[in-house]
Amino acid sequence: MVARKKRRKPTPYPSDLTDAQWELIAPMVPTALPGGRPAIHDRRRIVEAILYVNRTGCSWRQLPHDFPPWQTVFGYFQRWNESGVTDRIHDALRAKLRDRSGRDPMASAGMVDAQAVKGADTVGTETRGWDGAKRVNGRKRHVVTDSLGLLVVVLVTAASVQDRDGGRLALSRAKTVMPSMVMVWADGGYAGRLVA
C-alpha cells in the first residue's frame, strides 16, 4: 500500500489575502458561475491568483502551479469583470475606506489626470498611438480619483487620445459611479472644451 503524501499548505505570497480581508469580500464573490459545471476550486484561491497576476504583472500562463489552472482563473476573471463583480467589490472597499477616514462614502470632489505609457511590442497597433507631448508610442491611462486618492475610474486608450477627450470619457463614467462628485481638479491639459 502506497502512503499518500500529506498536502502542505503553500507558503503564502505577499499578494495573498488575510483572513480579515477575505471575510470582508467573501459575501461579494459569487459562489458559482451561471451555467457550466459546479465549482471545484476554492473561491478564495481564485481571487488570490487574480491578485497575484495583478501584483506581479506576469502573464496568465505563468501563474504558479500551486494556484488553480490559469485557464480557470482567467475565466473567472473575465466573467467577474463582465458581470460587474470586480467593480462592486472595488466600490464597496472604497466606501469602507472613506468611512474609516471619517469621510462621506460618496465623494463630492475628485481629480483627473492621464499618464502615457510605452506599449510593449505585443500591443497591437490598433490599440496604441503616439503621444507627441510625452514622446511615447503606447497607451494612455485616464484616472479619476476621489480627494483621498482612491480610484473611481480608470480608462485606457491609445496614447494619441488627448487628455481632455479621454478625460471627458473618464468623467462621464465617474459620474455614473460617483454621482455625488460635483468638483474635479485637473491640470492645464484639460483646458478648453472639457472645462466648458
Note the main attributes of this structure.
five-stranded mixed beta sheet, globular, alpha+beta, 196 residues
Describe this structure in words.
The protein is α+β, with helices and mostly antiparallel strands. Helix content is 34%, strand content 18%. Strands 1, 2, 3, 4 and 5 form a five-stranded mixed beta sheet that branches. Helix 2 crosses helix 3. The model has no long low-confidence stretch (mean pLDDT 89).
SSE order and pairing:
Blueprint: H1 19-25, H2 43-56, H3 70-83, H4 85-100, E1 109-118, E2 129-131, E3 136-146, E4 151-158, H5 163-177, E5 183-185
Parallel strand pairs: 1-5
Antiparallel strand pairs: 1-3, 2-3, 3-4
Main β-sheet, in a few words? 5 strands, mixed
Helix content: 25-40%
- What's the N-to-C terminus distance? 79 Å
Mean pLDDT: 89
Q: What form results from the Cα inertia axes?
A: globular
The radius of gyration computed from the alpha-carbon positions, rounded to a whole number of angstroms, is 20 Å
